[in-house]
Design a protein that fits this description.
Layout (H helix, E strand, L loop, with lengths): L2 H15 L1 E2 L9 E2 L3 H5 L10 H15 L11 H9 L6 H10 L12 H9 L6 H8 L6 H11 L10
Antiparallel strand pairs: 1-2
Helix pairs in contact: 4-5, 6-8
Length: 162
C-alpha cells in the first residue's frame, strides 16, 4: 500500500471511529480509535478490502480482550510469532510494529521500498538479501538505521511544502 493510500485509510478510520477533540487551533480533530472502539466496529462499515478488514478487526479484538499485548514490556519474539500467525500480517508489518509499538531497537525492514531506495542513494546494497547482510554489523540497533534511511529518502512525505 502506498503512503498516500495508508494516510487516506487511516484518516477515514480516525474520523469515523476516533474520539473527537476540541482543538482551538484547528489542527488536531480526533484521537486514533482505541482497540476497544475498533473491536466494536461492524467490519462491513469499514471502507477497505475484506482481507484488510479481517486483519484490522482480528488485531483489534485480540488487543481489546487482552489476547495480545503490544507494548515496550512485551516479549519481542513471542509478539512477532503471534502477529505472523494472524491473517494479513507479514514480516514488514510485524517489524514496523516491533519498532514502533514494542520499542525493538533491532527491527529491520529490508523489503521496504523507501529503505531500499535510500540505501541505493547512499551507495549501500539495495536488494533485501544484500542489505540484510550489510546490516548485520548494525545489530542490535538496526531500527535506528531504518529511521535514518527513511529520513534521508527523497519520498514526498519527508518534504513538507513551505
Amino acid at each position: 500500500m502506498s503512503t498516500a493510500a495508508a494516510r487516506t485509510h487511516a484518516a477515514r478510520l480516525v474520523t469515523a471511529h476516533g474520539k473527537p477533540l476540541d482543538d482551538p487551533e484547528g489542527g488536531l480533530t480526533h484521537l486514533f480509535p482505541s482497540a476497544d472502539a475498533l473491536a466494536a466496529v461492524d467490519p462491513e462499515s469499514l471502507a477497505m478490502p475484506r482481507t484488510r478488514r479481517t486483519t484490522l478487526t482480528t488485531l483489534a479484538r485480540l488487543l481489546a480482550d487482552g489476547g495480545l499485548r503490544l507494548g515496550v514490556d512485551t516479549d519481542w519474539a513471542e509478539a512477532r510469532a503471534r502477529l505472523l500467525a494472524l491473517p494479513g500480517f507479514g514480516p514488514w508489518t510485524v517489524d514496523v510494529i516491533a519498532m514502533r509499538a514494542l520499542g525493538d531497537p533491532d527491527a529491520f525492514l529490508p523489503t521496504d521500498l523507501g529503505i531500499r531506495r535510500a540505501a541505493s542513494e547512499l551507495g549501500l546494497p539495495s536488494t533485501p538479501a544484500a542489505l540484510t547482510a550489510r546490516a548485520e554489523g548494525w545489530r542490535p540497533w538496526r531500527a535506528y538505521a531504518v529511521q535514518y534511511l527513511w529520513a534521508t529518502d527523497s519520498h514526498p512525505i519527508n518534504f513538507l511544502p513551505a
